[in-house]
Write a structure and sequence with these properties.
The chain is mainly beta and about 1000 residues long. About 5% of the residues lie in helices and about 50% in strands. It has a 22-stranded antiparallel β-barrel. A 5-stranded mixed β-sheet has the order 10-15-16-13-14. Strands 3-2-5-6 form a 4-stranded antiparallel β-sheet, with no helix packed on it. The protein is globular, with a radius of gyration of 32 Å. It starts with a helix and ends with a strand.
């Protein structure tokens, strides 16, 4: 009750403080006098809450509920500065007057605000689709390495998951849900016209991390079919338009933006100490492996050995300016982030140049050039399987599993293999330092280039040929030295190396024709036509080698290894497109958009090379109707509706429609000469075609209280058919699966976004802005292959018609089997083991006793941000939340299983024994496996204080436009019931396996200080 009362008080003060404000008292000077007046709007209605400031001072007041004010001013030379949200400011000289009545004119900039759409721009009031904008100031509120991270929880309908907390780690982006089973559900990114894609895979280095976030001017997220259909075959998962900063006419501006700080792990897991572990090992093996556990104490803390406090820094120097003919923007950036796990790091150097030059009144040319060089030092962190030991396959699991009774280093400082300790007792576990010692480095260079020419052929008609190139090359290097091997491993040779070089090239040409005209003053028409062709080439070369004589040359001379293998790969694809769009508007009141695009792709079958993607949308600005003129509380009101079809070409790789062969590894000897065996690997499917998403969207945009409060609401229903799905074939066919168009998925939901200026501020007054968004999405599998209605994906994951993706089906945990109880046959049939519910009552535990126990789809996601400004100070806060989703915690499953050889979670101190009949933790048993039950399907809901920052802008200094210093805390607080390292960093990044926590790189908490200077 007390919290609700406080909330009501805050809201009351925010909205009605203008009515309660009192005029400032006179300064006490004898030459002061009082001036009063009334302030009205363009209709003559009084305006409460208008800021009235004496120019050149901090003396001021606000109008009361009747729009009147009083203010003490000097007898001579007084000038009043009048400001109010949504209206043009005024400066009024008082002169000899004691009463001043002022009428404010509306600020029409809101009506003229422009947003970027596909192949052009529109005034915000003209948009008919579901488009959300994020400005650079919001994007960079939280220091980020990856562009997509800046969108997290800021846009309704967009779920962004940090797949890996590693430096440069990848993210998964879902716009209005997961749309594909086998294919990608990642959106298309368009950076200054250059189209790029992100895989979302947890082990992939994100291409988005190679883009400098400081270069970005704004981001538009296109969510519905009307706004995305212009991108046709690549738009089923939504489109993210990224516009970088360009030069402007005016004085040259030089700015520096830099920050530095430290990161640390949010949480570590409690495990058994050396004494407790030794006792457990003696129980499991039923012999005295440790003669006297009580003498061992705490032992080695392996998590302390792999985690560290890690530095993070970024420095950006930018120059922009120009004149009426030429505008230029240049930037240089250096970003370096050490990981909180040792030997992980991401470093990026980037350069951007944007130049625009007007040759004549009819011709304008321009270019955008980006060069990025990055080095990612990674390591294996999590497991990839579902067996009880799979979590130990990475450094995080190895650190939890490592026996605290063992020693990390040899006397000479080298890593001490566990196999060489305690007479080889611990052969099955690995020293976690083995994971942070090897070389594991990926070096990437990327060039994004765009050249355009704008021709104004005649009034209203322009032709813009654009040439885009996305060129990338990478080198992935790894080397595991002999020094990590045990004596027995060295006897059979050692040292492993690999070098993988990759090259990618995407060339895109677009010819864009645009015609704008007005007919009879009230009718506006914009027609856009585009011809485009895109060609992609990807190549890779791989060298692997093992059994080196020494570590001197590492991976730089694989020819020294006894075992060597080379392989190569190359693929090509092409996309030809023809598209058009007509935008019609009448009196800024009625709007209609028609879009159509035809795409032809080399990836698809001979009978379905082309797909057609139409869309239609309309909007009605009700605020322009005569009957709304008297409704002063509503500043703007628009309803929108759209329908359209988009495609997903990113669902498959090239050549999937063709009959293919592959080297099977089953080689043969002919006349004592080895010959590589080649076998058929895929059945041709000439009917293979696009995944096809049909979407309906109904939205409303409303602004209230003279634009102090705005609301955007959207309902959508999106159905994806013809899913590219691998249908299992009988073994008698000679093939395992056929790639075809079989399944269907539906996503429908509701999005709400609210923005409010709670306290309007005025000249150096208190200003409080806040925004919030929430999304409810329901995901459902409508069909699989037309024959089966469910398909197991693992021991616990299931695809089932009528249910959402990410479904869990497991046994039901029913405590621990106690002495004297009847133990059902079928699973863990022992006293002290896990007891499972016999759901079908047949007296035996079988697969028929498994039940659906939840799914990984959240019920809703939300974000909230608040910005307070007072004089030179600013305080910003940003909160992210995900609610109602479940997560399979395989990491917990692994480390609640006391099978010997590995350490376990500290809770197993309370494991079952004859003298301690625990009903939560099972007793240890050598080499055993616990059943996968709902005990390990946890609630992964969380609320996270993503960022809180405090800044101060210094008073102006001659020659310096602005100096701002700030401190920031990121990922400062997470509220969750989830027992793992983090409820978010749990994914493998694709639609079918992303809902598993097997020990991935946790998100770091960071504390930063920054400086921003503009000259």
């Amino acid at each position: 009750m007390r919290q609700k009362l406080l909330l009501y008080c805050v809201v009351f003060w925010g909205w009605f403080s203008p009515l309660l404000a009192q005029p400032n008292s006179p300064s006490g000077q004898t030459d002061d006098r009082t001036v009063s007046g009334t302030i009205t709007d363009e209709k003559g209605s009084t305006l409460p809450g208008v800021s009235v400031i004496l120019k050149g001072t901090q003396r001021g007041t606000v109008t009361d509920g009747k729009g009147t004010f009083q203010l003490a001013v000097p007898a001579k030379g007084a000038v009043l500065v009048i400001s109010f949200v949504g209206y043009l400011g005024q400066e009024v000289a008082v002169g000899g007057r004691s009463t001043i009545n002022i009428q404010l004119a509306p600020d029409t900039k809101a009506l003229e605000e422009v947003v970027v759409v596909g192949y052009g721009t529109q005034r915000k009031i003209e948009t008919t689709g579901a488009i959300a904008s994020v400005k650079a100031a919001d994007l960079l509120q939280t220091p980020i390495a990856n562009v997509a991270q800046g969108l997290q929880a800021r846009v309704a309908g967009v779920q962004i998951t940090q797949n890996s907390g590693a430096p440069g780690g990848n993210v998964s982006v879902r716009i209005r849900g997961t749309n594909s089973i086998n294919g990608s559900s990642e959106p298309l990114y368009v950076i200054d016209g250059i189209q790029i894609s992100n895989s979302g895979g947890i082990t992939d280095v994100s291409p988005l991390s190679q883009i400098n976030p400081n270069d970005i001017e704004s981001i538009e997220v296109l969510k519905d079919a009307s706004s995305t259909a212009i991108y046709g075959a690549r738009a089923a998962n939504g489109v993210v338009l990224i516009t970088t900063k360009r030069g402007k006419d005016g004085a040259t501006r030089v700015s520096y933006d830099g920050y530095g700080g430290v990161q640390q792990v949010n949480k570590t897991l409690d495990v058994l100490n050396a004494q407790q572990f030794a006792q457990l090992e003696n129980e499991v093996y039923k012999r005295s492996i440790y003669a006297d556990p009580s003498t061992l104490g705490q032992g080695t803390n392996w998590q302390d050995l792999i985690f560290r406090k890690a530095a993070m820094q970024s420095h950006q120097l930018s120059v922009s300016g120009g004149n009426q003919k030429t505008q230029l923007a240049l930037s240089l950036n250096y970003f370096n982030q050490d990981g909180i796990i040792k030997n992980s790091n991401f470093t990026r150097y980037s350069f951007r140049s944007n130049i625009d030059h007007r040759l004549s009144d009819r011709v304008k040319i321009g270019t955008s050039l980006y060069y990025g060089y990055s080095v990612n030092k990674g390591l294996s962190v999590g497991g990839t399987g579902s067996d009880v030991t799979s979590s130990r396959a990475g450094v995080l699991g190895a650190a939890v599993a490592a026996p605290p009774t063992l020693t990390p280093y040899r006397p000479d400082g080298g890593v001490f293999p566990f196999q060489d300790q305690m007479n080889g007792q611990y052969q099955e576990v690995t020293n976690p330092l083995n994971f942070i010692t090897p070389i594991n480095r990926q070096t990437t260079q990327r060039i994004l280039a765009n050249v355009y020419v704008d021709f104004t052929l005649f009034k209203g008609f322009t032709y813009r040929p654009s040439f885009n190139a996305d060129l990338g090359n990478s080198l992935s290097e790894s080397y595991s030295p002999l020094s990590l091997l045990s004596q027995s491993q060295l006897a059979s040779g050692g040292g492993n190396a690999s070098n993988v070089s990759g090259y990618s090239r995407t060339l895109l040409h677009e010819s864009i024709f645009t015609y704008r005209t007005r007919i009879a003053e009230h009718h506006s028409i914009t027609a856009t036509a585009v011809l485009a062709t895109q060609a992609n080439v990807n190549q890779s070369y791989t060298q692997t080698a093992s059994n080196f004589p020494n570590d001197v040359t590492e991976n730089n001379s694989v020819g020294l290894a006894v075992n060597q293998r080379i392989s190569s790969d190359k693929s090509k694809s092409r996309l030809d497109s023809y598209l058009g769009r007509i935008n019609y508007g009448y009196k800024d009141k009625y709007f209609l958009d028609l879009t159509a695009r035809a795409d032809g792709s080399s990836k698809f079958g001979e009978n379905n090379k082309y797909g057609f993607f139409p869309a239609v949308a309309g909007a009605w600005r009700i605020i322009e109707e005569p009957f709304m003129k008297s409704v002063s509380v509503i500043s703007d009101l628009k309803v929108r509706g759209s329908w359209g079809i988009t495609g997903n070409a990113g669902a498959i790789d090239p050549y999937q429609s063709l009959a293919t062969v592959s080297a099977s590894g089953l080689n043969y000897n002919y006349n004592h000469v080895p010959v590589t065996g080649i076998n058929p690997s895929a059945i041709p499917n000439p009917d293979l075609k696009w995944e096809r998403s049909t979407q309906v969207d109904i939205g409303v945009d409303i602004s209230l209280f003279r634009n102090r409060l705005s609301l955007v609401a959207d309902y959508y229903n999106k159905r994806t058919d013809n899913l590219l799905f691998q249908k299992v074939l009988p073994m008698s066919s000679g093939y395992t699966a056929l790639t075809g168009n079989f399944g269907s998925i539906q996503n429908k939901g509701l999005e709400l976004a609210v923005n409010g200026r709670i306290l309007p501020g005025g000249s150096r007054g208190l200003q409080w802005d806040a925004s919030a968004n929430i999304t409810f999405n329901k995901n459902e599998v409508l069909a699989l292959d037309g024959v089966i209605d469910e398909l197991p994906r693992s021991a616990f994951a299931l695809l089932k018609v009528g249910y959402p993706m990410g479904l869990y089906r497991t046994y039901i945990f029913d405590g621990i089997s106690q002495t004297g109880e009847t133990i059902l046959s079928g699973y863990d049939g022992r006293v002290g083991g896990h007891k499972l519910k016999d759901l079908n009552g047949d007296g035996t535990i079988t697969a028929a006793d498994q039940a659906i126990v939840g799914n990984a789809q959240p019920k809703y996601i939300f974000g909230f941000s608040s910005s307070l400004r007072y004089r030179g100070f600013d305080l910003n806060l940003f909160v992210q939340g995900v609610q109602g989703n479940k997560l399979m915690n395989l990491f917990r499953y692994t480390f609640e299983t006391a099978l010997g050889q590995q350490n376990v979670l500290a809770g197993l101190v309370n494991r079952w024994s004859p003298t301690n009949p625990s009903n939560e933790y099972a007793s240890g048993f050598q080499g055993g496996r616990l059943p996968l039950s709902d005990r390990y399907v946890e609630d992964a809901s969380f609320v996270r204080l993503k960022n809180i920052s405090l800044g101060y802008t210094l008073p102006k200094i001659k020659g310096i436009s602005q100096i701002r210093v700030y401190v920031s805390a990121n990922n400062a607080l997470t509220i969750t019931k989830y027992s793992g390292f983090d409820p978010e960093v749990n994914n493998f990044g694709n639609a079918t396996t992303q809902f598993i926590d097997n020990g991935t790189y946790p998100i770091a908490r960071s504390y930063l200080g920054g400086l921003q200077v503009t000259f």
